[in-house]
Amino acid sequence: MLTRTEEKARGLADLPPAQSDTLIALIAIVHADPRPDKIDVGVGVFRDGAGNTPILKVIKEAEQRLHDTQVTKSYLGSAGDKRYTELLRPILLGDYADDERIVGLQTPGGCGALRLGFDLLARANPQARVFIGGPTWPNHPPIIRAVGLGIVDYPYYERGQGAIRFEDMIEAFRSGEPGDIALLHGCCHNPTGADLDEDQWREVAKVVVDRGLVPFIDIAYQGFGRGLDEDAFGVRLMLDTCDEVVIAQSCDKNFSVYRDRVGSLWIKSASREASANAMAHVFQIAREMWSMPPDHGAAAVRIVLDDPELKQRWLGELAAMRDRINAVRQRIAAADPRLAFIGRQYGMFSMLPLSKEQVLKLREDHAIYMAESGRFNIVGMGDGQIDRFIAAVVEAMDA
Asked: Of residues 113, 122, 137, 299, which has the active-site annotation?
């Protein structure tokens, strides 16, 4: 048997090819297209009627205040901006904001919260399996695999009918073992737009409790569906019914601070002491990954939420974004009976009933870009592009 020194040295040149993220690759393809009339409904950012992703007026004002008053760039500590998470509690947790069993900290976006939460659960129970409904956000499975947890896939959505396969979801959860994890989209399901209704949430909660599953809720679009409180229904129901809950939250969308990466992780356990111990592990894991979270975006959000007048203006700007999403949904849904389901869904994303070949033909013939699955951003285009988009999609469905 060869000793380590006798074996062939391995280095970076021996790495296998990396598996690219299809949505990230799509951004590069769009940029390479020189056609001036191209439509990019693949990237997941809100665009207004003019086709721009605006900085909210309240964020602009908060950043100016931050510029004028900030006196240091010293570290904040592993928890980040504590006032930021304190102000998020009533928005996310509602009546459970004062529950001492629920602890939270600032993270670099929702993605950082997901990785941190799954890493914590993997340390608590390395044998746990994560139940994921398909299709889901493409970064969910890689994050889960990276912490060493197994995945159980089940069908969540029927594309041809634009409907949730709810019985399949319930059947999958009934096969779970105590300690397994149920990954749930809090609202505005990405990529389908198909959300559980309140009765379905109640049935899911019952099965989760009966089987002893841990609900992990990814809520990245609160306020983009029906409203802040309405979109948090599932989160609050799980907090009411389950002893252990993990929540990954993002402010990137509802404050339009995408590049600043503003999120939070929340943990509920059966006791204040257990939650405090879990948070100590979270701090250790965060130390190993990013040590201290960035400040700027969370500080701007904190300034908005800490000022009653700014907060009220933010609610107005958030409502305007939500109203545009829902108005564009209705406009697309009214164009063709085969697209009517889009008007019954929520958030920035839906999946068109198109094959991969039809999606690629839209790219070639019309410079319209979306994921090969047919997932598209409802508000990825300006008002002046919507009719051309609809006409091209209907043409593709008729072909």
From this structure: 137
Which one from 40, 81, 180, 218 is the annotated catalytic residue? 218
Specify whether 137 is catalytic: yes
The tens digit of pLDDT for each residue in 60-72 reads 999 999 999 999 9
Which pTM was predicted?
0.94
> Is 218 part of the annotated catalytic residue set?
yes
- The 10s digit of each residue's pLDDT in 96-129 is 999 999 999 999 999 999 999 999 999 999 999 9
Parallel/antiparallel/unpaired status of strands 262-268 and 39-40: unpaired
Domains of the chain, earliest start first:
12-55+322-398 (3.90.1150.10), 58-308 (3.40.640.10)
Name the catalytic one among 220, 298, 367, 396. Answer: 220
Q: How far apart are CA 360 and CA 194, in angstroms?
A: 24
One of 40, 195, 253, 299 is an active-site residue; which one? 253
How far apart are the C-alpha atoms of 205 and 169, rounded to whole Å? Answer: 12
